[in-house]
């Protein structure tokens, strides 16, 4: 089914394309989000890595550094290790971040554990190594303590030094007046008890939910240290969703264009061929690729071009032949009329009138043949295909021919008298009549007529004679209009060269063919016309019978 329908292939291709784009979009989101999540983790830890590194660097000796790190570990409730730098293998990107006083973060998705590596100012031989299984409010509330510990060395200059280190943080840090913050009485009471608070804010903008950490400033009850707002990680921000959607639509557009391009190319070829046909050029033929609708269209165009070309050629040949064939009887009629005008002998005048009448009859016969041939050549005639008893048609033609007293022995071979075939009786009668008439015209003494149905379901009629036969090189020409292999003999027998052409066209419209070879029985020419004995399938027959019963 898919092989024979270009539209089904396009629909199936669209379904597959949509599925592939959906999978591609999902993978892109996962890859991009993985990178975004990594950048988000690093941005959150950069500022604290700088503050902790400064806190360790301010310790005067190794023991005090170890004590400070131990206190920080207890405060964060996270293990912090002071390890030698040569024991940690870092990538080039991680080394670059540590040299810039930023943190290198490694995240294990299976255990959801983050490993944070921090460099130390004035101590390139050691790193701080933190293992964080999860981040709780305990760790978040401990962050302001490290910043306040950093600011304790700059009394009265806290805001200026916060501004200096702001570049190390991806979120704002500032000292604000408590009255300027949207806090309720409970939150203000907790701050005055020297407790840090965490504020969650749902934002309708693209930032989404944010977190702010507020901690009281020592020796300043009206001011607080504010960290944030820090946006929570958004797995599908508007920019990412819009980008993936636009990319998916672009890929879908390319895929649809690729699916429709072959059909567009074939339609363009058909359009080009039709434009060529409008100019009168009928020689162009379309390539037939596959067996779908476009291939069927190309085949139909080629058949139409062949048919139009054949019609034009047949019309030209017909005009030439008609003018030639009409000239002789018309000339004889004119000559006969001139003789009548000059002759006084009554019997001679009667004789001339008989000759003129015969010429007029010949003209009528020729015109009838021409009209029949033209009707069959122009297009499919109106055929009333129905069951016909083959024997009755053959026997009728044999009896009609015998009645003409031709003096030839015309025999009908023994066959079933009830054998039925699908055919148009009038045209089948014309076929047998033309074949038998042609055989009588050229045989010496005997003509044999037969018919039947083969085991393959092919009906046939066969006419043989004992005449000279037809040379093999001329057998294809006998079915051409006005073709004469022996012009003098044909004229003597009264033929016009249209009978076998009419038989050929009827065979074509019957869905069959006409062939000529040498008779193995009589030695002369043997003409065989064959066509499907049943024009309709069994299912069509059953449907027709059912409709007949219902009606």
In short, what is this structure?
This protein is of the alpha+beta class and 551 residues long.
Written account of the structure:
The protein is an alpha+beta fold and 551 residues long. It has four domains: 1-135 and 238-271, no CATH class; 136-146 and 154-235, Beta-Lactamase (2-Layer Sandwich); 282-379, Helix Hairpins (Orthogonal Bundle); 383-551, Heat Shock Protein 90. Helix content is 53%, strand content 18%. The protein has helices at 6-57, 62-76, 92-99, 137-151, 158-165, 185-192, 238-278, 293-342, 346-378, 390-402, 425-442, 487-493, 499-509, 538-550, and strands at residues 80-84, 104-108, 113-119, 126-132, 173-177, 197-202, 209-217, 220-231, 386-389, 409-412, 420-423, 446-453, 458-465, 513-518, 525-532. The strands form four sheets. The chain has a five-stranded mixed sheet with strand order 10-12-13-15-14. Strand 6 (197-202) and strand 7 form a beta hairpin. Helix 1 (6-57) runs antiparallel to helix 7, helix 9 (346-378) packs parallel to helix 13 (499-509) and helix 11 (425-442) runs antiparallel to helix 13 (499-509). The longest helix is centred in the first third of the chain and has 52 residues, at 6-57. The relative contact order is 0.06.
